[in-house]
Specification:
The complex is a heterodimer of chains A (428) and B (408). Chain A is mostly helical and 428 residues long. Chain A is built from 16 helices and four strands. In chain A, helix 2 crosses helix 3, helix 3 packs across helix 11 and helix 8 crosses helix 10. The radius of gyration of chain A is 24 Å and the shape is globular. Chain B is built from twelve helices and 15 strands. The chains are: A mainly alpha (428), B alpha/beta (408).
């Protein structure tokens, strides 16, 4: 840092060099509380009783078995999509294309469902349909990864734009009445329903029912948690994410890892589409709105949870409660849907703002000078003058620190640079 | 391992919640109606506004309390998860009857109707056969012969436009949907009844709600020389575009003259949904006792599907603006008289209405005609007896987009 002679600002923001244990939890709790208070003030400004509103939010999730069922239905797609995204994000591959991958997964599953009808036993049929959805989403994501591997394209832009391609393919099929997909009837075109043999089975506990997608979601969380933490491939993802050069020097085939990881990420997300088509949440059919906006929300969930699978479960549940609850509450109290969205945004934004305090600290001028003098270097610092974005994996200082040293040397080199000169790899 | 355990714990806790809350049940003891709207209930014009006005009228007519009508608005009709959730939510609140006002709710409502045989469902603008064998039997479709009112609005527009002039029409959909194509054709026949050589240019949005293109298409039509813009879409944007261009318009759903605050909107084709909602809720209530307990579906099955006409006062024209042609009111009155008797004459019959001014008073007579398609071939017998009927052609004088190849 070269600011000895420069007049220092009153407040200085610097990256936290070490993590106090429990700080994260404390800040997060404070964030949720502040968010609720701010949201409450917002509701009060609209002229409604905030306490009644929050009571309704809670009641709207747990008051009746139907609400619990709806809550589960809200959480499942969000959870699986966030988990899927976290796999790509861990590699610092910015997959913004979950919406498109869900749609493509749904479309492949829907197509296969229409082909299969009841020609195979129910269990086998569902399995085939789910696999085809996975494959559909996976391949759709793989296209972007392949472009990146071959031409070093920007994956953020490409995945984003692929969302619209997928959406308008579905619109095309609908608006042009493509017979294979569209129900008979002279009215407005609607997609066919899939055969009853391919519906996910429902489990009933008393008045409460949910379909098998709940267990699939749990299985995926467990699988990804183990995959990322305990397998060689999971380790490779972390290394490539932290430092592609390190990965390359260690003899990893970066391109191949990237293709494989992106396929896995988008395949998991594609499965969400297949579950939506076969499950009871969305009427066992295809629709242009089948994603329910999950592809966007999941990005927030994955980030808030710092890509930690357990945290993703918790954040998904909280997000589901916020969404389902405020949906019920706004109707009950006559607040417009737009205002409910603003409230959700406000709460999320507050939590994200607090997130800042976990990664950075704000110090006043004098204090800062003292601190600098007393602690000029720290071992694990990533504190450079560059304005580095908050790191996804390592800032908690608790996980995946295996490669920190190499990481420090090369962390500013992006995956892009590696990919371009990665061709030599094969020859060695 | 610890984290795995934590995950399991979370799952167990969620499952635990079920047990606690499954005991809760809704114990309201009164008849309740749930309503699904596509747009915000706070809209001040357009589709949802028209339906909500009908719901309010029904509430007043039948003396229902506020607590007896539950509204879920802004329910996207392409998002089946949102639709299902909204229906379930209404069920959770103990609704005995659920009314869905938008087409896209059809599949979700049918599925819910099958699962909840003791709840009455009423779906607007759908076409499913719900009373046949193996069908729910507790769900009906409702709509109206809105083309009749469009014929009347055509008369208003035809009188305003110059003889042999060009009129524009912004439609939600085209030939693939009879509701839309019959509306355009009826409008054109109304125009031609008073302005024989006028033509109608049609642009289709391929969407029920697309405010941006509603403006853009109206502007394109105006640029193309159209003198009056009619609409079959949800917002007041086409009338607003006509106003901005110094031209005239015909509104739809609710009185668009009020929405844009200008008399350039000559009149609007408006629904009086209260007529249907009052009748339907009255019948549905007969299926339940005073405490909202289910008795039987007999009354509802007898009520059946609903396809109201001008004679039922389900729709009509809004008050005429000061800028209409001076003869408009007199001619409309004659045409309305004809429409009051559906069996005697309808818009697409083989007789056309002809209006004549004899010594200062207007007279109407029916003259034989051969209804022709835009390509010159004869239309033949027209069956618009129900909402599932199709009309895959434009009548002569209409210039609109052809059917997509797949659908011919």
């Amino acid at each position: 840092m070269t600011h000895n002679n420069v007049r220092q600002p009153l407040f200085q923001i610097s990256k936290r060099t070490e993590q106090k244990k429990g700080l994260g939890i404390l800040v997060n709790l404070a964030a949720v509380l502040t968010a609720l208070v701010l949201g409450g003030i917002f509701v009060a400004c609209l002229g409604y009783d905030p306490f009644k509103f929050y009571a309704k939010v809670f009641a709207g999730c747990f008051e009746s078995p139907i609400y619990i069922k709806l809550l589960i239905r809200t959480i499942i797609p969000l959870l699986i999509t966030s988990i899927g995204l976290s796999v790509a994000f861990k590699m610092k591959f910015w997959n913004i294309g979950a919406e498109g991958q869900i749609l493509m997964g749904a479309l492949s599953a829907f197509t296969v469902s229409l082909l299969l009808k009841d020609s195979v036993p129910s269990f086998l049929g569902i399995l085939i349909v789910l696999l085809s959805g996975t494959l559909g989403g996976g391949l759709y994501g793989l296209i972007v990864a392949a472009f990146k591997a071959k031409f070093n394209t920007n994956e953020t832009l490409l995945t984003l734009m692929f969302n619209y391609i997928a959406l308008y393919i579905v619109f095309y099929l609908l608006n042009n009445n493509v017979k294979f997909f569209i129900a008979a009837g002279n009215g407005i075109p609607t997609f066919k329903l899939i055969d009853k043999a391919l519906w996910l089975s429902e489990i009933k506990i008393g008045d409460l029912s949910f379909d098998t997608s709940l267990f699939i979601a749990i299985a995926i969380v467990v699988f990804v948690a183990i995959y990322l933490k305990f397998t060689k491939q999971g380790y490779q993802i972390s290394v490539v994410g932290d430092s592609p050069n390190t990965a390359k020097y260690a003899g990893m085939k970066v391109k191949r890892i990237m293709l494989r990881t992106m396929f896995l990420s988008s395949a998991i997300i594609g499965l969400v589409g297949a579950l939506q088509v076969t499950g009871s949440a969305a009427s066992h059919t295809m629709s242009t709105g089948i994603t329910n906006g999950v592809g966007w929300t999941a990005i927030i969930v994955a980030w808030l949870a710092k890509l930690n699978p357990i945290a993703i479960v918790v954040v998904s549940i909280l997000m589901g409660i916020l969404e389902q609850g405020s949906n019920v509450a706004r109707s009950a109290m006559g607040i417009s849907a737009a205002m409910a969205d603003v409230l959700q945004g406000l709460i999320l934004f507050t939590i994200l703002a607090f997130d800042f305090f976990i990664n950075y600290k704000v110090t006043r001028r004098k204090k800062f000078a003292l601190q600098e003098a007393s602690a000029p270097t720290t071992e694990t610092t990533t504190d450079t003058d560059k304005d580095s974005t908050p790191q996804l994996t390592n800032e908690n200082g608790e996980e995946n620190n295996e490669v920190t040293e190499e990481n420090n040397m090369t962390c500013d080199q992006s995956i892009n640079e590696i990919v371009t000169d990665n061709d030599k790899e094969g020859k060695e | 391992m610890k984290k795995l355990f934590a995950t399991l714990l979370v799952v167990v806790m969620i499952v635990g919640c079920f047990g606690i809350f499954t005991a809760c049940s809704n114990d309201t003891k009164e008849f309740k109606v749930g309503v699904l709207h596509i747009n915000p209930v706070s809209s001040t014009s357009g589709y949802t506004y028209a339906h909500q006005q009908g719901i309010e009228a029904m509430k007043k007519e039948l003396g229902l309390k506020d607590s007896q009508v539950v509204i879920k608005d802004s329910i996207d009709d392409t998002n089946s998860q949102q639709i299902n959730a909204a229906i379930e939510e209404l069920l959770a609140q103990g609704c005995n009857m659920i009314i869905g006002t938008s087409f896209g709710y059809m599949n979700g409502m049918k599925e819910a109707a099958l699962k909840n045989p003791q709840v009455v469902f009423s779906h607007g603008t759908g076409y499913l056969d719900t009373f046949g064998e193996g069908e729910p039997g507790n769900m009906n479709n409702y709509f109206g012969r809105i083309y009749q009112a469009r014929y009347l609005s055509g008369i208003v527009a035809g009188l305003k436009a110059s003889q042999g002039g060009k009129l524009g029409y912004v439609a939600a959909h085209g030939l693939n949907i009879a509701e839309c194509s019959s509306g355009v054709n009826a409008f054109a026949l109304g125009v031609q009844a008073v302005n024989p050589n006028a033509t109608v240019e049609v642009k289709t949005l391929n969407s029920w709600f697309d405010p941006t293109n509603e403006t853009a298409y109206a502007e394109a039509l105006l640029k193309d020389g159209c003198e009056v813009i009619a609409q079959h879409c949800d917002t007041e944007n086409p009338p607003a575009a006509a106003k901005a261009a110094g031209k005239f318009s015909i509104g739809y759903n609710s009185d668009m003259r009020k929405a844009i605050g200008d008399d350039s909107c000559l009149t609007s084709v408006v629904w009086h949904w209260g007529v249907y909602y009052t009748a339907a809720v009255r019948e549905a209530m007969k299926c339940f006792d005073a405490e909202g307990k289910f008795i039987s579906l007999d009354a509802w099955k007898a009520f059946g599907n609903y396809y109201g006409s001008f004679a039922d006062d389900l729709f009509g024209l809004a008050e005429l603006s000061s800028k209409v042609d001076p003869d408009t009111a007199a001619i409309l009155k004659l045409a309305e008289g004809k429409l009051k008797n559906l069996d005697a004459w309808d818009v697409f019959s083989d007789k056309a209405l002809s209006f004549e001014n004899v010594d200062g008073t207007w007279h109407v007579k029916e003259v034989d005609r051969v209804l022709k398609k835009a390509d010159g071939t004869a239309v033949g017998k027209v069956e618009v007896a129900n909402i599932t009927g199709d009309m895959k052609y434009w009548v002569a004088g209409v210039n609109g987009p052809a059917l997509p190849a797949e659908n011919k």
